[in-house]
Design goal:
The chain is α+β, with helices and mostly antiparallel strands and 89 residues long. The protein has helices at residues 2-15, 51-56, 66-71, and strands spanning 28-29, 40-45, 63-65. The protein has a domain at 17-71. The chain has three helices and three strands; from the N terminus they run αββαβα.
């Protein structure tokens, strides 16, 4: 009886794996004001016509917000398909 209960309990916990959090990903970059909700993903640069580069010669690369990357299946998606654990911790 105990074995049946434990097997059911294990199957329930295996259905809810730990989510892949962007703050633990090696591509996560904090916003300048250190607010995690505005963190960006360095894996997905914004493609834009950067006219400032033609003036100053300095290329400013900006990235999509993590929330945008996680909401798009062609990027990282809800499942965190491009997620890589940050080894710096």
């Amino acid at each position: 009886m105990i074995l049946i209960f434990l097997s059911i309990l294990l199957s329930v916990f295996s259905l809810n794996p730990t989510p892949k959090l962007c703050i633990n990903c090696k591509f996560f970059t904090k916003s300048p004001n250190s607010d995690f909700k505005y963190g960006k993903c360095s894996l997905f640069p914004l493609e834009k016509n950067d006219l400032q580069y033609l003036v100053s010669g300095i290329k400013n690369t900006d990235y999509f917000y993590c929330s945008t990357a996680r909401s798009q299946d062609k990027m990282c998606g809800i499942e965190g398909n491009k997620y890589e654990e940050n080894d710096n911790d």
